Amino acid sequence: MKKNILKIAIAILLLAGCAKNQTQPEFNSETIADKQQLTNAAILATATIDAGTLQQKIQGFGGASILAWIADLTSDQRTKAFSTTSGIGLSILRVMVPRSSSSFAAEKPTIDAAKSFGAKVIAQAWDAPSGMMTGVHLNPASYAAYAAHLSAYNTAVGGVYAISPFNEPNYSPSGWMEGTATEVANFVAAQGSNCGAPIAGPEPLNMGQTFINTYLSNATAKSKTSFVSGHIYGATPYNLGNIGKEVWMTEHYTNSSISGNDWGNAMNAAKEIHDCMNVGWSAYVWWYIRRFYGPIDESSNITKLGYVMAQYARYVRPGYNKIACSPNPSSGVYVTAYKSGTKLVVVIVNQNAATTYQDFNFSGITVAGFNRYFTTSSANLSTNSFAVTGSNFGINLAPSSVTTLVSY
Q1: Distance, CA of 194 to CA of 31 (rounded, Å)
Q2: Mean pLDDT rounded to a whole number for the chain
Q3: Cβ-based neighbour number of residue 135 at 10 Å
Q4: How far, in Å, CA of 237 to CA of 372, rounded?
C-alpha cells in the first residue's frame, strides 16, 4: 500500500511540473525520502507576485550610531555597515542631534562615510538645549531658537536627509524631552521650515496611531512633514491607513540581552522586517549598528542578524517599489516582492524547521532567471542561480532561512 501511495505522489509531482512548465532548482537532486516530507498543502500553495501593482516606495534599511552613548564607528565598521559588496548594505544612518553645538562636528565622519556609500542620514533630537526647556517640555518662547539649533547642526554636518525635532515624545519614563502630539505639531507648524532639513515626525513610541493622527490633524504641521516616523517597541507593525505620508520605522531591536549571532533571534528580526514591509512601511531602522546584539558586534564582525538584514538591505535598494504578492502563501513561509524597472527581487523568510518547497507565479514582468542568496544558521549570503521558463517556478527553501531572489 505504501508503495502505491509513493507512486501516486511521484506522479502528481511530475504532472504538476509538466503542466506548469516550471523550473525547480535543486529539486532533481533530492531523494524520494526528502520529497515524502512535502505535504500536499505545501505543493499546491502558490505565492503569486503581481509586478504591475506598485505599493510603497522603499527608502531603505538602516541602523543608528549615537555618539553621546557609544563610541563612533571605525572606518572598517562603516564599510561593513554600508557597503553593498563587502558589507550589510545599510542605506539609512540614524544619528542624534547633540544638545551642545560643540559636539556637532564629531558626527561628521560617519555621516560623510554613510553618504559616500549612498545612504540617507536622518537626525533625531532627544533634547533641546536646557535653556530652551521648561522642565521636560520645549518652551514655546524658544521655538525659533530651537529651530536655529537644529539648522546649525544640519549645516555643521554637511546636511542630512531629514530631522526629527523630538524622539519618543510620548515616553514619560525616559527623562528626555517630552511633548504631546499637539505640542509637537505646534512646533513643526511654527518652525518646521526653519530647521535646515525636511521634517520627520512625530516619532512616537509604539508607532501610536492616535498620536500620529492627532499630529497630522494640524494641517500646517502635516504640510511641513516629509514622512511619518515612529518606533514599534511594544507594538506590532500595522497599516496606518491613508495618511498621505510615507511611514518609516526608525528604531527597534528585538532583544538587547541576546547576541546578534543567536539564530532564533535573527530569524525573529527577519520576520519583523517582513511585517514592516508587508503593512506598507518604507523603511526599517535597527537600533545600534555596532553592539553585541546588533548587526555588527564589538569585534567588528557582521553578526547573523547583520546577514539577515543584508538579505533585504543589499538587494532592495532605495527607490524600489514593493509590489503585490502573497505574504504568507504556505505555513511558516513569508514573502515580500519588490521591483525596480525590469528587476524583480523576492525576499522569503522560511520559519519551518524542515526544507520547504514553495511554488511561485509572477506577472507584469519578464524574468529569465534568478540569482539566489540565502542565509541560514550555518551559511551567510550563500549564492547560486537558476533559470526560469515562463511565469512559474518552484524552489526548495532551506530550513529556518532567509532567501533573496534577484532576477537577471
Answers
A1: 66
A2: 91
A3: 8
A4: 28
Report how far apart, in Å, the C-alpha atoms of 252 and of each of 110, 227, 276, 374 are: 21, 18, 11, 24
- 26 in catalytic set: no
Asked if 350 and 308 touch (Cβ cutoff 8 Å), the reply is no
The pLDDT confidence band at residue 48, using thresholds 50, 70 and 90, is: very high
Are 287 and 253 in contact by the 8 Å Cβ rule? The answer is yes
Q: Is residue 31 scored above 90 in pLDDT?
A: no
Among candidate residues 107, 178, 251, 272, the one labeled active-site is 251
Largest CA distance in the chain: 85
- Checking if the pLDDT of 16 tops 70, the result is no
Residue 27 confidence (pLDDT) above 80 = no
Q: How far apart are alpha carbons 132 and 139 in whole angstroms?
A: 6
8 A C-beta contact, residue 338 and residue 345: yes
Predicted confidence (pLDDT) at residue 34 exceeds the cutoff of 70: no
Distance between CA atoms of residues 126 and 117, nearest Å: 27
Q: Answer whether 133's CB lies under 8 Å from 166's CB.
A: no
Share of the chain above pLDDT 70, in %: 89
Quote the cell numbers at residue 26: 535543486
Concerning whether 168 is annotated as a catalytic residue, the answer is: yes
For residues 78 and 289, what is the distance between their CA atoms, to the nearest angstrom? 9
Pair 300, 75: CB distance under 8 Å: no
d(CA 257, CA 237): 22
Structural contact between residues 201 and 184, judged by C-beta atoms closer than 8 angstroms: yes
Q: How far is CA 368 from CA 326, 344, 386, in A?
A: 21, 11, 9
Look at residue 43 and tell me whether its pLDDT is greater than 90. no
CA–CA separation, 201 and 154 (whole Å): 17
Please, which pLDDT band fits residue 270 given cuts at 50, 70 and 90?
very high
pLDDT at 408 > cutoff 70: yes
Provide the pLDDT confidence category of residue 347 given band limits of 50, 70 and 90.
very high
Provide the whole-model pTM.
0.90
Q: 32: closest CA among 62, 72, 3, 67?
A: 3
Among 168, 178, 246, 272, the active-site one is 168
Note the residue count of the chain.
408
Mapped onto helix, strand or coil, the DSSP state of residue 342 is coil
